[in-house]
Amino acid sequence: MTETQDLRRQMHKEHQELRILQEDLVSSFESYCDDPLAHHAERLTETLDNFAHSMERHFDFEEKGGYMSFVLDRRPHHNLEVDRLRKEHAVLRHSIVTLKDQIGHDPTSSDELMRQFKREFIDLIRLFGRHEQAERELTMDVYWLEGGFSS
Fold this sequence. Notes:
With 151 residues, the chain is mainly α. 84% of the residues lie in helices and 0% in strands. It has five helices and no strands. The chain has helices at residues 3-34, 38-63, 67-74, 79-104, 111-145. The longest helix has 35 residues, at 111-145.
């Protein structure tokens, strides 16, 4: 197996895991919004932690000698797209911290806080989805449309 195949398989595996965790996160969010009892808040916080941990591991793979470096070493004309994706990592990290903080301060204490909490959550899920799609598209461009590379 070539280095290219290894990177693509690792990326695919991590995206699958993150999608599963994202579904768990959405389910926990829905349970909390339907019935904001302490055990639902704890479960949502735990699910956010699991998602954040896996997302961080994935970002490390991309940023530190993995996928992004590989793309830039061989296809430097994608530098703007890679920079944009790196910046989104910081936004996604911040969104999770914000949500955890909001849960800790009980967003159910007012309608406005709950609306804001829901907006923040939806923004996180939307950005994460767009981010993963952009990564898949970059992968297709680099590995498939641009002829790929064998090592």
